[in-house]
Sequence to fold (312 residues):
Amino acid sequence: MYDREYEYIAAISKTGTLSGAAAELGVSQPALSRFLKNEEAELGTALFQRICNRMVLTYAGECYMEHVEQILAIQARMQTTIHDIAKMDQGRLRVGIPSIRRPFTIFSVIPEFKEKYPAIDLTLNEQASNTLEEMLENLDLDCIAVNVARQTDLFEYVPIAKEHYVLAVHADSPLYRMAQQCPGYPYPVIRPEQLENASFILLGKEHRIRQFADTILSNRKIPYTVSMHSRTLDGALEAVSNGLGCTFTPEIQLSYIRGSKSLRYLSLDAPGTEYEFSLLYRRGAYLPPSTKDFMRMFLERFRTQKAMDSYA
Fold:
């Protein structure tokens, strides 16, 4: 499907001679010479110069080849796209998720996907949301599922659910006894000022949850203590379940968290707690049918699980 003239110029550039290029292309040297003469006349400039009996690209020839390489790359992507559409049982899928979403992804989504696409090479990457977005921007991932506070033009967004940041506490925590049921809130409500002198398990500053915690605590100048730091949210929640303090968290299905029977969620009476949990992919990137199907499965499974948890 490549244009023949592009191959001719590329072959001359590669071999450095008309005879070598003609032999590689399977055409006669006079025919190739006529082609080059006509092409240069049409362009109005020379593409090659002779240096020590070799055909060397001129500056115009270098520009020509640079654009030819882009054209060939586009054609190659087109062929890949058509191939994927025609044959959906091979390929790869690189998914990015925060570690706290791993149990849902592994137990609810991946088994269904692998049953339908057993030959797809699936890789699950667990990183902080900011890191996942950087990897997606660099096309090191095909799609990610993250909490989105602010959208950019780099990505396409597929909303999954509107959620809130909440406070996770132990069932025996004074904060839990202090909280009150309020209309319009899914969990018992606590005010930020009631967190004064509370003991927190905090994540690293690269995590969006930590950035939210700093907004609630530091911006309001609420005094608090830090009982420990955790590299992952699931580690922080496990620490809460063992009575080591409290932590801010997205609304995660408690059934997937170790020690969940002793965990309780509290809603915060504060602005800015809402975010949208979404699937993201790079704007302009080609998504093979298997990747689109994975995203569909993720969306449907999540909403089904959410509805079951709400019913329970």
